[in-house]
Amino acid sequence: MEVLKRIFNFYLNSSIHVAIAAYSLAWVTLIELNLGYDKQLLYFVFFATITGYNFVKYFGVVKFHHRSLASWLKAIQVFSFLAFLAMCYYVLKLETETLLVIMILGVITFFYAIPIMVPKHYLFDDHKNLRQVSGLKVYLIALIWMVTTVILPIVNHDMALSSDVMITSVQRFCFVLVLMLPFEIRDLNFDSLKLATIPQKIGVKKTKIIGIVLLFVFLILEFFKNEITDKTIVATLIITFVTLVFLFFSNKNQSKYYSAFWVESLPIVWLLILLLLR
Question: Which of 48, 64, 100, 174 might form a disulfide with 218, Cβ 3.0–4.6 angstroms?
């Protein structure tokens, strides 16, 4: 039992689970826009998510302590390096235009973890990374996920920027933003007040109300698309309801795996619903 627990914790801590979630959302886009299964792109998204998330999560821990790393962190470091190599392999198989978008995402991810000089009136302290800029974190993450799981697929398939693509982009931004709220609520006990997260500024109850409004926007926008099917409507209705349930029951004393596993699983659930309805 202890071995299984360690394996599961490695699965979460090494960002494999969040990478599957990103992979799933990118595949959802391919299905909704009738672009077909894009193996090269989806594998890139998977390995890039592992690389990016582990860089952001562990950069501050490992940069000065290579020799004193715990064994599990060393394992994640090796695993992340292998994921980085796989990412480099698959990125070479993508279209040139896609590489330009990836470069922009790479720069944002880099400065999300690395301290930079930012105008002082935006911050409480000097030399912050983008992750620590007051009130920015959740919106930046939603934007990165939207670009990664919507813009990358359409650019790689040379698809025109249609109204359906724009609607899908807004939907994805709203959906990921809602998924972030249970994490924000969970971290109320730990986050510095300088981060000015949504729950810190308006409280848990109003945060959930904002989440409900965003889910309503996410759902209603589906009906404004030019190409719409019964299957995508049903899938959108189901995932909206399930996400609403998880948002409603989130609290700052939630279990260890509530957000890290269950909430993070919702993109996977969305994909499975679409695949089952095909």
Answer: 174
Q: What is the pTM assigned to this prediction?
A: 0.89
CB 254 within 8 A of CB 186: yes
pLDDT digits (tens, 9 = 90+) for 234-254: 999 999 999 999 999 999 889
In order, the DSSP letters of 49-84 are HHHHHHHHHHHHHHTT-GGG--HHHHHHHHHHHHHH
Residue 44 belongs to domain spanning: 2-277
pLDDT tens digits for range 165-191? 999 999 999 999 999 999 999 988 776
- 130 within 8 A of 140, measured Cβ to Cβ: yes
Q: How many CB atoms lie within 10 A of CB 46?
A: 22
Report how far Cα 160 is from the mean position of its chain's Cα atoms: 24
In three-state secondary structure terms, 124 is: coil
Number of domains in the chain: 1
